[in-house]
Amino acid sequence: MSLKIEDNEVDIVIAALRPNLNTFLEAWRTFFSNFHLIIVKDPNLEEDLQIPPGFDHQVYTKSDMDRVLNGASINFSGHSCRYFGYLISRKKYIISVDDDCLPARDNSGVIVDAVTQHISNLQTPATPFFFNTLYDPYRQGADFVRGYPFSLRDGVECLLSCGLWLNIADYDAPTQIVKPSERNTRYVDAVMTVPLRAMMPLSGINIGFNREVLGPALVPGLRLVGEGKRRWETIEDIWSGMCAKVVCDHLGYGVKSGLPYVWRGVGSDTDNPMDSLKKEWEGVKLMEEIVPFFQSVKLPKTAVTAADCVIEISRMARENLASLNPVYAQAADTMEAWVNLWKVAGSDRL
């Protein structure tokens, strides 16, 4: 049941948190040149963006966000500005790469084409219902292991491809404090399907997804007070990823993790994490409530689209979590506003 994804079905979304995109885009030119780029400028960024010539691109700024929001209470500042790109796109698929990421090299020193790898993950089936110990059986040189039921070997459509990265690790502030110099140097040449009902902390740094089917589930719902631009201060994509995983499980789709890698450079993430810990500690505690909540979510059969599922999850969050912390009620409100906005400004197919 492999799919064929054409270049004109894909938008590349770039969240611009820094003004100079020259080095970033020149490094990706070979891999981005066949695609339309949606560059979303952080609404808090005052400087003009520097973009080299030769790219098919559109830049969106705070004025565009204000026009589309039309009073809706959704915060697109910082890393959350990427979600505006998801909303404004009209393509079936999206690949999103942060502006502090450059192409990685594999174990043989070959530059990794992350775009092609994401597309490959989305084109080939996922296998969430039975774990294959050789990981992705659809990759060249792999197959299903002995004992894998033939009735499950067709797999299901993969809606979300979660890539990894080398160099700067995606640690939280407590871990960053005790491992300030640690770098990820291991390139693991593997892709795996995340099993049914298994939760995971998604990071929007390097992902690809089927916007047409899954788009409303990638929602900028939960934000900490004073959430900043350092990765360890953000929790919105973790909440978003759990929403997306629950939706994929309920609707019978799959999620893959592993390849492709990117190389994350040195940026604001190298600042003193003690400052971030003061902001993030609330999020560390919230995760002990968030994970059991999503593990317990059971969506009704009447929820047949991603938008339906997000509305149900928002209702459950309000009923089960809002009494613990007002941030959950705010998340529920944002999820409902997001679905309404998606219906107006986003895809016609929900």
The gross shape turns out to be globular
How do the helices and strands follow one another from N- to C-terminus? EHEEHHEEHEHEEHHEHHH
Distance between the termini: 23 Å
- In the predicted model, the low-confidence regions spanning at least 5 consecutive residues are none
Helix content: 25-40%
SSE-based structural type: alpha/beta
> What's the rounded overall pLDDT mean?
91
Radius of gyration computed on alpha carbons: 19 Å
Strand content: 15-25%
Structure annotation, total helices: 10
**Major sheet characteristics:** 9 strands, mixed
Number of DSSP strand runs: 9
Overall description:
By secondary structure, the chain is an alpha/beta fold. 35% of the residues lie in helices and 15% in strands. The chain is built from ten helices and nine strands. It has helices spanning 22-32, 62-69, 81-88, 114-123, 173-178, 211-214, 236-251, 273-296, 306-320, 326-345; strands at 10-16, 36-41, 57-60, 93-97, 101-103, 158-167, 191-193, 206-210, 254-264. Strands 1, 2, 3, 4, 5, 6, 7, 8 and 9 form a nine-stranded mixed sheet that branches. The protein is globular and about 55 Å long. The protein starts with 9 loop residues before the first strand and ends in a 5-residue tail after the last helix. The relative contact order is 0.15. It is found in: Golgi apparatus. One of its GO terms (cellular component) is Golgi apparatus. This is UDP-arabinopyranose mutase.
